[in-house]
Amino acid sequence: MSRRPQPAVAGRNVGGQLRELRIRRQLSLREVAAELAWPPSRLSRLEHGRQQVRTEEAAALLVIYRVTGDERAALLRQVERAAEPGWWEAAVGLSAESRTLIHLEAEATTIIGCEPLLVPGLLQTPDYTRAVMESCGVRKVDTQPRIAARLARQEILRRDTPPALHALIDEAALRRPVGGPQVMAEQLRHLVTASERPNVTLRVVPLAAGAHTGLDGAFALLDFPRDRSVVYLDHKLTGLFLDDRHQVEFFRREAVRLAEAALSPIASVNFIARVAGEYERK
Question: What is the DSSP string of 19-51?
């Protein structure tokens, strides 16, 4: 099976930042391309990650966008790092990997999240997130910035044109008392409230379903209006973005199989509300 290298996804993060800088300067794509004697299609490919950004190209664009100092140096480092085949394998703190995920979530039109162990990050409350991070040994000095970053990610669900979020959650994630009964009660009530948004669909895979295809790990599948779909696999020390068509379709089929084992959206929300009530009575 052929596979495009990881930098194809990393480049979408760099390209997106360059596009944001151009918009900040109130310059059109054609104006910038003309100044560099480029065809507009070249700049468009760079901004959408369909062509890898070279250091000299980024440097030229940053001159036009009047980006200097630390901001310029940081972006050029990202350009150089995006060309490294294994840049994504070390995720410490809010890594380049995490920033890429945040950028991709912000551009996605649909996000399918499958979670066998935890409430999905896009739907977590601050107290739940804090309890997860503390149990995973995150340093106290890093906890609040990472909670803030997670809350910032969630803002995409409140936009005027938000992505459609389809969250498949194993019942075990609802039963695990992360942070204690009060934290869990608030978290589950938050899920019920989130489900009232027209762009959020929750499906619970009950324990009664027995073994199922989602037990071997969480994944998120992101679809975009123009670019290739991406699957994100997360782990304690490593993370991986996949955008090969065959790999993406494999995970899409896995999500369909998992949905077939899940309760309906209405039954799922009622189930979550019942479990929240159980925590509230403890």
Answer: HHHHHHTT--HHHHHHHTT--HHHHHHHHTTSS
Q: Compute the distance between CA of residue 264 and CA of residue 17 in angstroms, rounded to an integer.
A: 39
Q: Are 200 and 157 in contact (CB under 8 A)?
A: yes
Neighbours of 134 (CB within 10 A): 14
On whether the CB atoms of residues 62 and 24 are closer than 8 A, the answer is no
Q: Which amino acid, 158?
A: R
Partner residues linked to 195 by β-bridges: none
Domain spans in the chain, listed from the N-terminal domain onward: 7-85, 90-280
CA–CA gap between residue 128 and residue 119 (Å, rounded): 9
Q: Which residues pair with 110 in a beta bridge?
A: 164, 223
Angle at 117 between CA 105 and CA 9, to 5 degrees: 30
Among the four given CATH numbers 1.10.1040, 3.40.1350, 3.30.870, 3.30.1300, the one describing domain 90-280: 3.30.870
Q: Token digits for 57?
A: 């190209």
Task: Tell me which CATH code domain 7-85 carries.
Answer: 1.10.260.40
Residue matched to tokens 């066998």: 116
> Radius of gyration (Cα) for the chain, nearest Å?
20
Record the pTM. 0.69
Instruction: Note the pLDDT tens digit of each residue in 143-178.
Output: 877 888 888 888 899 888 999 999 999 999 999 999
Of residues 155 and 128, the one with the higher pLDDT is 128
User: Tokens representing 28?
Assistant: 């059109």
pLDDT per residue as tens digits for the range 192-244 = 999 999 999 999 999 999 999 888 889 999 999 888 899 999 876 667 889 89
Give one word for 179, left, alpha or beta, with left for phi > 0 and alpha for psi -120 to 50: left
Mean pLDDT of the chain: 86
